[in-house]
Specification:
Blueprint: E1 11-15, H1 18-21, H2 34-39, H3 57-71, E2 75-79, H4 82-85, H5 95-110, E3 114-120, H6 126-132, H7 139-155, E4 161-166, H8 168-171, E5 176-177, E6 188-189, H9 193-217, E7 223-228, E8 233-235, H10 240-250, H11 260-265, H12 270-276, H13 287-291, E9 297-301, E10 306-310, E11 317-319, H14 339-351, E12 359-364, H15 381-399, E13 404-410, E14 429-432, E15 437-440, H16 442-453
Parallel strand pairs: 1-2, 1-13, 2-3, 3-4, 4-7, 5-6, 7-9, 8-10, 9-12, 12-13
Antiparallel strand pairs: 10-11, 14-15
Helix pairs in contact: 3-5, 7-9, 14-15
């Protein structure tokens, strides 16, 4: 019988993002991010919700860290807000903003929790949007590197695990559109697909320059990763033909060939460039060398996947639509495809030939239609069902020898879910936003037991 026992040195963790939980948007010297501006625009966010207070983690971080300690995690992935550190995006460093993260990290270390800091999780300074259109400009990559230097030189004595950018696709292609208005900040319509691709190229450049800045500014040895929300192609069954089809489809699916592949291999996928044609971004000499930095790990954010089969057409594969009744969680896109974790990891190793590169699942979790029962409890067995199946798939990757080193559940606490506002809870801790009371859900107790036994329970 498989008991799904994980290695002794496996990283069990949870993940959050600054804009989604911190609140205190006008405190401590912080200035607006593009998301503050976007959420203040009527009609952009479901229910016109804002993140002005959200979980008030800025003030309640000690309470939250104590809950993490109770959960039993030894690793916490959070993000640092650029507008707190350099409120104008460039220039003067706001030491009061730095001090907040010093207090947070000191508190984590008091409870023997290792900090994993993401340097950018979508909340870029509004000042840079006003100045030059943020990711539309190549200058954004250089200003990002300066911000990284400011952070790492001040926090590198406390933090040794760094992640540059979170999910390039979402703050570029899902934030700038051509025909349809994008659902993410700054929510800007551009005139061509090429311009949109230029934004993700600038983000890749920022990643590369950011890696260099981390290593130059860190006072000691550190680890550097990139976090990407890859599109996972899953063979409908594991025949040799369908596996080959899934690997082939991986190159162009969900922009893998223009984001993950250049970062990990030093070149855009030829299949992706062929598909883009004249819409491919302009790449200056030396860009790909900057983008292709050595990494200590790659972080994969995986929630779902798309089934693929081999067919006799010019591509040799077909992406399959799901039937009407296919099970999903509480998001239109959150189809339950547990094999996606295994295949995401395997694609990095085999499809991209990066057998050497350790992988961490930096986000996995689900929104559910959570309800408090008559006793004030949240018995979210649907979320437990989802997490259990995905963790079994993660175990399969380890069991077959792939380099999966850690798992960060998304998310620790209910929060502001971007364009969905507060309507789609992903947390294993419930928040009453009017009182800021935290109530651990049944999934919290379940995950705590997985960590305690170091296996899927």
């Amino acid at each position: 019988m498989t008991i799904y026992q994980f290695p002794e040195d496996f990283y069990w963790g949870v993940a959050t993002a600054s804009f989604q939980i911190e609140g205190a948007v006008n405190e401590g010297g912080r200035k607006p991010s593009v998301w503050d501006t976007f959420t203040a625009t009527p009609g952009k966010i479901l229910g016109n919700d804002t993140a002005t207070i959200t979980c008030d983690h800025y003030h309640l971080y000690e309470t939250d860290v104590q809950l993490m300690a109770k959960l039993g995690i030894k690793h916490y992935r959070f993000s640092i807000a650029w507008p707190r550190i350099i409120p104008d995006g460039r220039g003067t460093v706001n030491e009061e903003g730095v001090d907040f993260y010093k207090r947070l990290v000191d508190c984590l270390q008091k409870y023997n929790i290792t900090p994993h800091a993401t340097l950018y999780h979508w909340d870029s300074p509004q000042a840079l949007e006003d100045l030059y259109g943020s990711w539309q400009s190549r200058q954004m990559a250089f200003d990002f590197a300066d911000y990284v230097t400011a952070v790492v030189s001040r926090l590198g004595d406390r933090i040794t695990h760094w992640m540059t950018l979170n999910e390039i696709y979402y703050f570029t292609h899902a934030s700038y559109g051509v025909e349809l208005e994008p659902a993410h900040a700054p929510g800007k319509l551009l005139s061509s697909q090429k311009e949109v691709w230029q934004t993700s190229h600038h983000a890749l450049l920022a990643h590369g320059l950011g890696c260099q800045a981390i290593r130059a500014a860190s006072p000691g040895a550190c680890k550097v990763a990139l976090v990407d929300s890859i599109g996972v192609t899953v063979p409908i069954n594991e025949s040799p033909e369908n596996i080959a089809a899934a690997k082939k489809a991986f190159h162009t699916f969900r922009l893998n060939g223009g984001i993950l592949i250049p970062a990990l291999t030093g070149a855009y996928s030829p299949a992706m460039l062929e598909e883009l044609g004249e819409n491919a971004p302009d790449i200056k000499p030396g860009d790909l060398e900057i983008i292709h930095q050595p990494l200590d790990a790659v972080g994969l954010n995986i929630y779902s996947g798309t089934y693929v089969r081999a067919v006799d057409n010019e591509k040799g594969y077909e992406l399959l639509n799901l039937p009407k009744g296919y099970p999903r969680m509480y998001m239109p896109w959150l189809n339950i495809v547990p094999e996606s974790i295994y295949w995401g990891i395997r694609h990095v190793s085999e499809t991209l030939g990066r057998h050497d590169l350790p992988v961490m699942i930096t986000e996995n979790g689900c929104a559910a239609e959570d309800e408090l029962n008559a006793n004030g409890e949240m018995i979210d067995t649907d979320r437990i069902m989802y997490l259990r199946q995905y963790l079994k798939s993660a175990y399969r990757a380890i069991d077959e020898g792939y380099l999966l080193k850690g798992y960060f559940l998304w998310t620790f606490i209910d929060n502001f879910e971007w364009a969905w506002g507060y309507s789609r809870p992903f947390g294993i801790v419930y928040v009453n936003y009017s009182t800021q009371q935290r109530i651990p859900k049944a999934s919290f107790e379940w995950y705590a037991e997985c960590i305690h036994q170091n296996r899927v329970v």
